UniProtKB/TrEMBL annotation:
This is Sigma-54-dependent Fis family transcriptional regulator. InterPro entries: AAA+_ATPase, AAA_lid_NorR, Homeodomain-like_sf, HTH_Fis, P-loop_NTPase, PAS, PAS-assoc_C, PAS-like_dom_sf. SMART domains: AAA, PAS. Residues 146-376 form the Sigma-54 factor interaction domain. SUPFAM superfamilies: Homeodomain-like (SSF46689), P-loop containing nucleoside triphosphate hydrolases (SSF52540), PYP-like sensor domain (PAS domain) (SSF55785). It comes from Virgibacillus indicus. Keywords: ATP-binding, DNA-binding, Nucleotide-binding, Transcription, Transcription regulation. GO terms for biological process: regulation of DNA-templated transcription. One of its GO terms (molecular function) is ATP binding. The keyword Nucleotide-binding applies.
Length: 458
């Protein structure tokens, strides 16, 4: 080999990023490039012409294994030291007579990659554990039953969560099927009274003649047909817990007077009882009627309204939270597929458009019932538009409700999404503009400008 070629090869080996080691059959180091120096922190002058086993344990060296077995290795993970991770290629070296005279190894240092991967695995495990905790918290939260991510629902849930931490009477307004009782139960289950009874009373389902005995109970023998031992009423049954008065607008005026007395004095009188008994009850009422109009018509007492209306919630109708329809649909399909032991079907895009365009007069209850009927009657794995028309022939859709027509251009769609995102972020930060701007990744000046542009009130 000419001297020029030798120096060229030496320059190539010197420029190589991977650690290159050449040993003879006596385990003496003949070549140790600069990358090897950096990888193992052993200088060339220290190791060259010395036994490699003076610096490494023989069991830790792949190059010695190759020298021993005379078999090359390619892209093998190796750990020559406790603190080093490498990928090694190694080969035996033969002379012209096919005698082994040494071995060469090329080792790529992947220590940092391994450490990063270990950190990533650790972080991923911690993140997964945290997600599981969050999921468990969310799924075990009473308010998780109010499924949805729409701003209107989130605002209602936020107020409900605050109400749960108090003893204040609460009035829940909303159309039929919007989930007023679900909300009332969530408030109870998230309150300090969660281990005590939650007693629901449907005021619209009780005959007027039975209202007093149902709510207040009676003493034994107080009227014909009464049980000898008497009977506790719903209010007494809820002692220590929560009484939920659904459709409170249906209460007869006479019962409104007696209910007001309970709210004022925390004392009830069974039919036939003149002494009364103390009760500790939290009242939650709900109605789909206009109580203000009922008060004007002298059908609902003003003083009772103000007693019940300490905290007021409004359950939004489903047509105002169409963003929640996909999640609710999926939730109900899964729930009823499990209940009836059938495969869970999927709705195609056109079928989903029908659900988004429908006005939902029966709200979430109607959607739930519809998905149950679909699971029972349909055997298809993919539900299409015509399947919905066949199963629900009375389902009339309104084209103007279609989300696709809300924003007909890309800029308008972008503005709509941006406005929605700003609103959601402000809800999450409880109206804190500085925090909202930080989360959105914009300056406060830009946020104020967008609030003004989109006419968002905080």
């Amino acid at each position: 080999m000419s001297d020029d070629l030798f120096y060229h090869l030496k320059a190539v080996l010197k420029a190589e990023d991977d650690a290159i080691t050449i040993i003879n059959n006596q385990r003496m180091v003949l070549f140790w490039n600069d990358a090897a120096v950096q990888t193992y922190n052993i200088s060339q002058s220290e190791i060259t012409n010395n036994r490699i086993t003076d610096f490494f344990h023989s069991d830790d060296l792949m190059v010695l294994e190759v020298l021993k077995t005379k078999e090359a290795v390619n892209n093998v993970y190796h750990r020559p030291r406790e603190d080093k991770h490498v990928v090694v290629n190694a080969s035996p070296i033969y002379d012209d007579e096919d005698n082994i005279i040494g071995a060469v190894s090329v080792e790529r240092d992947i220590t940092q990659i391994v450490k990063l991967n270990d950190n990533l695995e650790t972080t991923s495990a911690e993140l997964n554990e945290l997600k599981q905790k969050i999921y468990a918290t969310e799924s075990s939260s009473p308010f998780s039953k109010l499924a949805g991510r729409s701003i209107s629902l989130k605002q209602t849930v936020q107020i409900a969560q605050k109400a749960a931490n108090t003893e204040a009477t609460t009035l829940i307004l909303g159309e039929s099927g919007t989930g007023k009782e679900v909300c009332a139960r969530a408030i109870h289950e998230a309150s300090p009274r969660k281990d005590a009874p939650f007693i629901p009373v449907n005021c619209g389902a009780i005959p007027e003649a039975l209202f007093e005995s149902e709510l207040f109970g009676y003493e034994g023998g107080s009227f014909t047909g009464a049980e000898k031992k008497g009977k506790a009423g719903k209010i007494e049954m809820a002692d220590g817990g929560t009484l939920f008065l659904d459709e409170v607008g249906e209460l007869p005026l006479e019962m409104q007077v007696k209910l007001l007395r309970v709210l004022q004095e925390n004392n009830i009188y069974r039919i036939g009882d003149s002494t009364g008994r103390k009760v500790n009850v939290r009242f939650i009422a709900a109605t789909n009627q206009n109580l203000v109009q009922l008060m004007e018509d002298k059908q609902f007492r003003t003083d009772l309204f103000y007693r019940l209306n300490v905290i007021q919630l409004t359950m939004p109708p489903l047509r105002e939270r169409i963003d929640d329809i996909p999640k609710l649909t999926s939730l109900f399909l899964k729930q009823f597929a499990e209940k009836y032991q059938v495969p869970e079907p999927k709705l195609d895009d056109e079928a989903f458009q029908i659900l988004l365009q429908y006005d939902w007069p029966g709200n979430v209850r109607e959607l739930r019932n519809m998905m149950e009927r679909l699971i029972i009657l349909s055997e298809k794995t993919i539900i299409e538009k015509h399947d919905l028309h066949n199963l629900f022939p009375n389902m009339k859709v309104t084209e103007k409700s279609s989300r696709a027509e809300v924003s007909s251009t890309l800029p308008a769609e972008k503005e709509s999404i941006e406005k929605q995102l700003i609103k959601e972020t402000l809800v999450q930060t409880n109206g804190n503009k500085s925090d909202a701007a930080r989360r959105l990744g914009i300056s406060r000046v830009t946020l104020y400008s967008k609030l003004k542009r989109y006419k968002i009130e905080v």
